[in-house]
Write a structure and sequence with these properties.
This protein is about 40% helix and about 20% strand. With about 260 residues, the chain is α/β, with parallel strands linked by helices. The chain has two domains: about 130 residues, 3-Layer(aba) Sandwich (Creatine Amidinohydrolase, Chain A, domain 1); about 110 residues, Creatinase/methionine aminopeptidase superfamily (Creatine Amidinohydrolase, Alpha-Beta Complex). Strands 6, 7, 8 and 9 form a four-stranded antiparallel β-sheet that branches. A three-stranded mixed β-sheet has the order 1-2-3, sandwiched between helices. The mean pLDDT is about 85. This is Aminopeptidase P N-terminal domain-containing protein.
Length: about 260
């Protein structure tokens, strides 16, 4: 939200992988004690007024069953709950949290406040990023995940092929963006994973060129770098394509291609 303008919310990929929860301001706390693991999901409370404007919330009463965790609590209870865990385990407590990549400022402040306890020996904050462990887990794909990834690639291939066919001089790069976005959505993608790079001429040298407002001129080669998501935004495919809308390439362009 910027002032009164809402923006589409993009959930953190690691959080989404472990919970399937798309709701903002949610926290997953995994408490590990020897071989016992307790997963607690904190979500926003039901609020008729907010839900009238922004859509329904799962609420803490239904979140545990909905997302398959052991228990769910209101997000407002997170501070007191985590503090109670630290007090319970004292010097044996370690808070594994990725403080190298801050996602939510308020959440970071809460964790940092508890981190002060480390100087008293009541808890520890390991310096190793938990993200590395998460990504090792996510590296192994199930057959169902592989199938979804293949579907995403198929959607991408068809969308880009159709976009190339309609490309012609006089079009803006934004029109090409609209075409690939439309084709992806119509074939099952929820939306593009990030703003695509559609560049020609010198703009192709800009790694994250997303303005996409230049006109496609005769002789231009087009660099298209797009990623699309399907299912619940976890599985996506990334495609980079370099092509000329005229169909004929100069020897140097063919070498680059």
């Amino acid at each position: 939200m910027s002032d009164k303008i809402p923006y589409v919310f993009r959930q953190n990929s690691d959080f989404l992988y472990f919970t399937g929860c798309q709701e903002p301001d949610s926290v997953l706390l995994m408490t590990i004690d020897s071989d016992k693991v307790l997963c607690t999901l904190f979500v926003q409370k039901k609020d008729p007024k907010s839900e009238l404007w922004d859509g329904s919330r799962t609420g803490s009463e239904a979140a545990a069953e909905m997302f398959g965790v052991d228990q769910s609590l209101p997000a407002s209870d997170f501070d007191s709950y985590l503090s109670s865990m630290v007090n319970k385990y004292k010097s044996n407590a370690s808070i594994w949290y990725d403080n190298h990549d801050i996602i939510h400022n308020e959440f970071h402040k809460k964790i940092s406040t508890l981190g002060i306890l480390a100087s008293t020996g009541r808890c520890r904050l390991p310096s190793t990023s938990i993200k590395n462990i998460f990504h090792q887990i996510r590296l192994i794909k199930s057959p169902a995940e592989i199938e979804l990834m293949q579907k995403s690639c198929d959607i991408a291939s068809e969308a880009i092929t159709k976009t190339i066919k309609v490309s012609k001089a006089g079009m803006t790069k934004h029109q090409l963006f609209a075409t690939v976005d439309y084709e992806c959505r119509m074939n099952g993608a929820e939306f593009l994973a990030y703003p695509p790079v559609i560049a020609g001429d010198r703009n192709a040298n800009v790694i994250h060129y997303i303005t996409n407002n230049q006109i496609l001129n005769n002789g231009d080669m087009v660099l298209m770098d797009a990623e699309r998501n399907i299912a619940v935004e976890i599985w996506c495919s990334k495609t980079s394509m370099l092509y000329t809308h005229q169909g004929n390439m100069l020897p140097t362009e063919l070498w680059i291609y």
